[in-house]
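Morning. Coffee machine broken again, so started the prediction first thing and wrote up yesterday's gels while waiting. Chain of 416 residues, entered below exactly as on the submission form.
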Amino acid sequence: MSKAAAAMWQKEAEERDASDPLKEFRADFYLPNTGIYLDGNSLGLISRRAEKSLSDAVDAWRRLAVQGWEEGEPSWFYLAETLGEMLTALVGGNPGDLVVAGSTTVNLHQLLATFYRPKGQRRLIVADPLNFPSDLYALKSQLALHGQDESALRLVMPDEHGWIREEDVLKALGPEVALLLLPAVVFSSGQLLDMERITKSARSQGIAVGWDLSHSAGVVPHRLHEVDPDFAVFCTYKYLNGGPGAPAALYLSPRHRDRLPALWGWFGGDKERQFEMSPAFRPARGAGAFQIGSPHILSMAPLKGSLALLAEAGIDRVRAKSLALTGFVMALTDALLADQGVLVLTPREPKRRGGHVALRHPRAAELVPLLRRAGVVGDFRPPDIIRLCPSPLSTRFSDVLDAVLQLRAALTASSS
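Came back before lunch.
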């Protein structure tokens, strides 16, 4: 690359950083000493507000002990529902439609057990083989519990680009399908599916619809109350910056507000009657009924600060910067990496991509460790994908440029 070309890209990066309306939020985050962090789609960074929320919860435990369930700020007893209401600004829905609880797979099991009811010829589940493996494990487990074998799992295969074709999803539906489960953003390629179109088609055929928003919640605006799937699940440790192993969240359509969950637990009960200690299960209304165990207060606590930070930034502004950053990765790849055999796998159309960029190269497995040694943290997905995720609130355009330059250096050094 010529000095003139390098100067041009450096100037563009600096200009974009200077005009970035979200640039002040970078100071809210603790940046790791590993260098340039482009792995927020695996684990988001800790913010000072999340740290304070956690510290406040520990302090409440110290000061209040058991009384924290009533006197904590917010009350521990209602924390799962409070956080669920905060999530509506990011994924849509109304109070009572969302709750923070369990883990993504536990929540998925709960919802599959509730909504997958094979009867007669309607016994199939439609999914895709690119979904996160844990989702597929849950689907196969539920099939087994219903006496079904894997022939009841209809997988929509990706095309030659590694994308899920929505037309193929629609063709896979029919009167023999009981449930559809797909990711909003495919974790390998970064492809964003048309949730509204798919949901509308499936529901019109009497098919229960669920979405996994783990790779989109917090970076892609969702309007679950408008799309209206039957349910959705997602983790909170990626773009929502809830911390490693943070509790997950689930969404339940208001159409099912009075539906009895398949699996009962004490914290899924009506809050007004929970301490009656009755042996009869009296469920809460809405998503809260689908809780199984007690809320993990200390694990949930950082989310209060993280969600407040995201609300202040605004999900639409976060999305706009995310698209600008991923678009910059793509432009730099075309200009600086294409001659080294690096291909952009993620769809280029903004409405078709999530928050990360997948780059394809046959030596991806070797290149990711080289990048990390050079101070650039991305990740590898088999067989040949490098994922780079610029987090809108903490990543600069100059960081993206430096990462791509390091990748070029790794490629040219290893090929010489």
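The chain has two domains: 3-30+314-415, 51-312. Going to sketch it on the whiteboard this afternoon.
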